[in-house]
Structure formats: C-alpha cells, structure tokens
Design a protein that fits this description.
This is 2-aminoethylphosphonate ABC transporter substrate-binding protein. It contains 12 helices and 14 strands. By secondary structure, the chain is α/β, with parallel strands linked by helices.
C-alpha cells in the first residue's frame, strides 16, 4: 500500500505530476482524513478480503481533500474520499457519485441521496494537560474553556475549521448552540492549529493547556497513562457522523464500490470498535465499553455550513 500526504501532492506541479504518475490505472486511490491509527486496521482487513486490489492512500485534512477534489474535478485522480462529517459531503455533493450500498440500511442514519455512507459516530470531549492545569481547575462545561486560567497556563488550542473537519464540527456546533458571542470570544483567545493532530498533540505534549479531541484517541491516550484528562462537558459535547463517498468520475469505480461496501460490513465495524475504539454507525454493533453511554450526554452537531463558519471564525479572530 502506497501512502502520500496532500502536502506532498500539492508541493508543486512537477512533484504532483511525478507522484500521481506513479499511480497505476488499476489502483484504488483513497483520499482520507483518517490518521494511520484509525485507517490501517481497516485497510489491512480490506487487503485480505480483496488481495487483487492495489490501494494508494493520500492523507490530508478534510478541507485540503475537498480543495484537491475540486481542482481535479475535470480529471479525477481519487476514487474515494474517506473521512469527514456528513455536512462536508452534503455541501460538496457535486464532487461525489451516488451509490446505494447494501449496508446503508443497517446504519443509524443514511443519506437519502446516497452520496455519503456513515462510518462512525465521533464525539469531541475536552482534553486537558495535567502538566499545565491543576486538578481543582479542570473545566466542567464548554463555557469554562473561556477561563483566563487556561490562557495563562498555555492556552486553549483548536484546529483550523477551514482545514479540519473536526475543527469545523466543534466551531459550528458551539456557534449553533452557544451563539457567536461565545464562539467569537473563543476564536479571539484560542491558539489555532493547522490540523486536528497538531491540536491534539499540543495538549498531549504539554505545549497547550486545553482543547478538544476525538474521543477514540483520547481513550487510548488515557489508557496509556499519558499526562492528560478527558472530560465530557456537562452542558454539551460536540459530535459528528463520519462518512465516506465515491468521487464523481472515479477512475476505478468498481473497486470504489467494493471499498464502500466493505466499510459498511459488520466485520469492518467490529474492527472499528475493537481496534480503533470508535463508535460504529451500524445499529447492530455495541460501542466500546470504555466510552460513556450516549444517553448520558447532550450531543450537539454542526449547524451552519463550513464556508459561513470559517468566514465568521476568522473574522472574529481579526487575523
């Protein structure tokens, strides 16, 4: 399996041509926002089930992937976009090809237009550096994230919503449920990370005091005994349905359909739960035991579309 990042692909015209030239016509090309921890167990299982399909993986933030797909729309290189909130696929439906996968009916939700196919239910609890924040000053709510204590202890950090699907989900959900007055204050005071992993790692490494994290990674880091605390706010927890879709004009359409179908199988979603500690979007898969019950949480999701959220967020930052 060949893996590239979008930064490599976008480094320049010659570099891009060279990299894409290495992709054979028979290869399934997947653009994914998932990191290796999430994607590798699934890709390994797909390779075992479909040994005749060669897979090339290109990784990048959700925003970067969408920009790449737009640039390539007249001559697509990718077959599948894997990862990102359903809202991203809805807002960019013209980039994708409808396909009715057999497993769509087994999911907690489905797209009536058959553009996107659910993968996981992904929440973003708070992540706090225990190196930076004392036990008695841990936040309990989203509104606590505006505390001056965090700013003096290393700051709150958030992924850029223009580049990160996680960042978009968090900002849009907070703005839609707490208003832009609160979210604007957060935008002004928070440090901005170029991507989700950058934000997560900054808190893990004690470079920032607090932020948000995808709960699967947070659970793993807690289990490893890293110097962090994971907190599900009592007022609201941001979350999204993560999805995948076939790129319109996919060069390897049949292999793309096979991958979409595989991602929806019960076997794949058991891997999702057991190997990646994520909540499956299938109705018949129980969630990981280390994660809190959804019924105990007030879950909020993105409200306004990404272009609106990105513009208002950066306007509030004044940068």
């Amino acid at each position: 399996m060949l893996t590239w990042t979008l930064k490599q692909l976008l480094a320049g015209a010659l570099a891009s041509a060279s990299i894409m030239g290495s992709v054979q016509a028979s290869e399934l090309v997947i653009y994914t926002a998932h990191g290796e921890t999430t994607s590798t167990p699934i890709l390994d299982a797909f390779a075992q089930a479909h040994p005749d399909v060669k897979v090339t993986v290109v990784r990048g933030g959700t925003g970067e992937i969408v920009e790449r797909l737009r640039a390539e729309a007249a001559n697509p290189s990718a077959d599948v976009m894997w990862g990102g909130p359903t809202q991203t696929f809805d807002e960019n439906a013209a980039l994708f090809q409808p396909y009715q996968s057999p497993s769509d009916a087994d999911m907690v939700t489905s797209d009536p237009n058959h553009i996107w196919h659910p993968f996981t239910v992904l929440l973003q609890p708070l992540i706090i550096s225990t190196k930076r924040v004392e036990a008695g000053k841990m936040p309990k709510t989203q509104e606590d994230m505006l505390s001056a204590d965090f700013e003096s202890a290393g700051g709150v950090i958030i992924p850029d919503p223009a580049k990160s699907g996680t960042g978009y989900t968090i900002i849009s959900a907070l703005a839609g449920n707490f208003g832009w007055d609160f979210t604007g204050k957060l935008a002004k005071t928070a440090r901005l990370a170029p991507g989700s992993d950058d934000a997560f790692n900054a808190v893990r490494d004690g470079e920032a005091a607090a932020g948000w994290i995808n709960e699967d990674l947070g659970a793993k880091w807690r289990a490893e005994g890293l110097p962090i605390e994971i907190i599900y706010p009592t007022d609201a927890v941001t979350g999204q349905i993560d999805a995948q879709a076939i790129v319109k004009g996919a060069p390897n359409l049949e292999d793309a359909k096979s991958f979409i179908d595989f991602l929806g199988t019960k076997a794949a979603h058991e891997i999702v739960r057991d190997a990646t500690v994520r909540r499956s979007a299938r109705q018949d898969i129980t969630p990981p035991s280390v994660l809190p019950d959804l019924g105990s949480l007030n879950i909020i999701s993105a409200v306004e579309p990404r272009p609106v959220v990105t513009a208002r967020f950066h306007e509030a930052r004044g940068k």
